[in-house]
Amino acid sequence: MFFKSWMMLFVHLKVIALLLVLETANQGPFPTLAPPLTMVVNGQRRRLVACVVSDLPPGSRDAVWISSGDGSTLGAFAYGVSHRTDGTASTVSVLPADSDALACHVGPDRTVPAHSSEPLHITGMALAPAAGPWAGALLMAIRVLLLKVLLFDALLTSVLLGGPRPGGAGTPHRPWRHPKYLGGGGSRPRSAVGG
Length: 195
Prior knowledge:
Blueprint: H1 2-21, E1 30-33, E2 37-41, E3 44-54, E4 63-67, E5 77-83, E6 89-96, E7 101-107, E8 115-116, E9 120-121, H2 134-161, H3 179-182
Antiparallel strand pairs: 1-3, 2-3, 3-6, 4-7, 5-6, 7-8, 7-9
Protein name: Ig-like domain-containing protein
Keywords: Signal
Organism: Apteryx owenii (Little spotted kiwi)
């Protein structure tokens, strides 16, 4: 369930990015509504909806809002309007899940929409089923796998850092094998070949 929610949010962000890239030939603002993401928040069904408006005049103070299709405001929590320098504005809202159609509007204020998107009919969009009993085991398996990958990475890093010293004779630095520690005093270490 957690993974599916993040994937759906990622899909919505990709749709918003695609809508930002598209150029339109219409005169005036062009609002577009992304498909909503239905979720459960505090035991209540809510919809997360994103609206992207392109071709806004520079410095425009037009309001952007999402309604039930007729222009009226809903009991929604809006995250505000984000204006970009290229004439694009976007807003994200969390709406109650009781509307059958949604639309995005642009206008001088929230009472008179000057431009509206086509209503998006959302009847038949069902809430994703709750995760089964295997979801906890799957999450634990993913956590164990990530832990093993991190431990393996730490092991490889320590092996590579403990390798030959730069500028050395190709042998690893091992202070415990130094003649001073082996009781040889300051004498030269014996070589393995005919020393």
